[in-house]
Amino acid sequence: MKNFANNRVLSVFAGLLLVFLITAPLVAQEKSDDALTKKYAPILGEYEFDLSDMGGDVQLLTFHITDGALWVDSGDGDPAVCEPIEGAEFEFTAESSDGQTFEIQFGKDEEGKVSTCNINIVAMGIEIEGIKIK
């Protein structure tokens, strides 16, 4: 009877350990996402880039927090992680899946609110400015 009780205690302990090992990273991820959302709140949202001067259309980019990182997403199913530039507020680099490097810098209006996003496409030497819409 004692062996049965010990096995049951061990089974319950193993089950609880398994639940902890599965949920702990999820809880940590949520805390990380919450902290980043708070840190980057002024820049999160949608920005509109009018590329008509370059023969293009209006392009929307969304900046959001997912999986413990800041992402930029054009809606093409291939978002890119934004890596912060050390010592600079709201300046980042990002690399597309095809290896294109982007430098991203957010600008503030007279009231101190983030209102623009400037993107430098490094290899092409092209700079474009987007206006925050959401």
Give me the secondary-structure topology.
Elements: H1 2-40, E1 45-50, E2 58-66, E3 69-73, E4 80-84, E5 91-95, E6 101-108, E7 114-121, E8 126-132
Antiparallel strand pairs: 1-2, 1-8, 2-3, 3-4, 4-5, 5-6, 6-7, 7-8
* Average pLDDT rating: 83
Count of DSSP-assigned helices = 1
| SSE pattern, N- to C-terminal | HEEEEEEEE
Helicity range: 25-40%
Estimated share of beta-strand residues: 35-45%
Principal-axes shape call: globular
Main-sheet strand order equals: 1-2-3-4-5-6-7-8
Oligomer: single chain
Residue stretches low in confidence (pLDDT < 50, at least 5 long) are 12-29
Which architecture name of the largest domain does CATH use? Beta Barrel
Q: Biggest sheet, in brief?
A: 8 strands, antiparallel, barrel
Number of domains: 2
Structural class: alpha+beta
How far do the termini sit from each other? 65 Å
Count of extended strands = 8
CATH fold title of the largest domain: Lipocalin
The CATH class of the largest domain: Mainly Beta
